[in-house]
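Chapter summary example.
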Amino acid sequence: MKENNFSILYVEDEIETQEAIQSILETYFKKVFVANNGEEGLSIYNQESPDIVISDISMPVMDGLVMAEEIKKIKSTQVLALFTAFNDPAYLKKAAQLNIDTYMMKPLNREQFFNSLSFLVLTLEMENEGVANE
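The structure predicted for these 134 residues follows.
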């Protein structure tokens, strides 16, 4: 994956995971915003309007699905990915209803993570080109 000019919001309550992923994201993205839960993530989203949002699902205060739903109310086309350790059909169904762009499983598989990031950037680039061509 190559460096790009996009900003990204990463929402994760596990500090060790958060720090590891944040350092990877900072290598590729112009700006990286980090939040510890969905409520904090939503607040940062409203202030910074990041291009991409990646969030854990299972978090205290506000989970990733609730946050994703709130973000999609603000911007229905927001490029958004969810991380989870749970392969729960209810989560998958809710994510599908919210038009989540991709769904990443924990524990993190490096190849899947970079493929998903590349997909999110490509989705955003295609969206931006579509806007520019209209």
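To summarize the output: DSSP finds five helices and five strands in the chain.
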